[in-house]
Amino acid sequence: MFLKHLILRSFRNYSEALISFERGINIIQGRNGAGKTNLLEAICLLSTGRSFRTVHLTDLIKKGASYFYIEAQFEQENVAQVLGIGYDGKGYRIHHNRTSLRGFVHLLGILPSVFYTPKDNDLISGTPAERRRFLNVQLSQMTPLYVHHLIRYHKAMKHRNALLKQKSQRAITSFEQVMALSAAYLMKKRSKLINALKPRMRFFARKLSLDEDSFNLFYEPSISMKRVDDIASLYAGQRHKELMVGTTLQGPHRDDFLITYDEKDAKTYASEGQKRSCITALKMAEWEELKNTNSHLPLMNIDDFGIHLDKQRLYLLKNMLKNFGQIFLTTPLIDKMIGTNCCHIEGGALYTHV
């Protein structure tokens, strides 16, 4: 996978820009507020169908403009491809080469990417919802069937919750059957992903700390049942209690995972520097798993690169990054790595190219 050009029109603070990239490490340098992160946000939207900063597409339209358009021109197995998204405040248009896509779900897997932003440290200290989102984004890029079951589960649960609020059991069994089928699939995929990430994360964490840090990863499903019939029976057995509260209390929508440091909860026992090192290792493990599944080198994106790690870990990471395909690093610092492409962003424009 090689992202050659990124085109932005009326996106965030960019009026119009065409930014060219090279293979390997691309450094995007500029002062805070210059628009560095906006480039990674555009790549994220093109890769996953969502921004890592907002859920509202209108936030992405440049002030005073009526629309935005972003486009990635890339090569996959030496075949030139184009992926574009346009939004005018009312509706969106998505195209992959000459094919129109019906929704953002259909973007997934076309431009596989991993993103590490400062907010990702919440994967240790934040809420279960943030950790579920991490699993969902990763698995959605790996298999379209995961997205199908995720949507199916939440749609059926929405109907079940509506009936619970109405104190009605009319047709509730049919929704529970749908939920049980998709729940079994989602939990199986999440468990498999955690088991795949675990040894890789531990390996990278040790390399980043010169064998000092020992982290581990554990999947914590909301329910222990694995068979569809058993999950359906659980929902049926929970009905009496859930009719009183008006919502579904157990299922994949309550799943979580735990990160430990020296066999203790990393949230409490790891230092802030160790937490950043752990999440860096997790993102590298995520990249490897995505590569092995898709047979393409995913894009690696790291926002505010200079603030993630201490000097020693940063030095070790720089040496390790050479093995991670095409990489995009934003930084307020001038840090020219050997063999890297560096561009300077000033006020939403490409100021200079080195």
Characterise the protein shown here.
The protein is an alpha/beta fold and 354 residues long. The chain folds into 2 domains: 1-112 and 297-354, P-loop containing nucleotide triphosphate hydrolases (Rossmann fold, 3-Layer(aba) Sandwich); 118-295, Glutathione S-transferase Yfyf (Class Pi), Chain A, domain 2, CATH 1.20.1050. Helix content is 41%, strand content 24%. A hairpin with a 4-residue loop joins strand 5 (79-87) and strand 6 (92-96). The two termini are 23 Å apart.
Helical proportion, percent range: 40-55%
Query: Overall pLDDT, averaged?
Result: 93
Number of E strands: 15
Specify the biggest β-sheet. 6 strands, antiparallel
Structural class: alpha/beta
Q: What is the radius of gyration computed over CA atoms, rounded to a whole number of angstroms?
A: 22 Å
CATH topology tier name of the largest domain: Glutathione S-transferase Yfyf (Class Pi), Chain A, domain 2
- Order of strands, main sheet, comes to 2-1-4-5-6-7
Strand content: 15-25%
Low-confidence stretches: none
Number of helices: 9
Distance linking N and C termini: 23 Å
- Name the CATH homologous superfamily of the largest domain: RecF/RecN/SMC, N-terminal domain
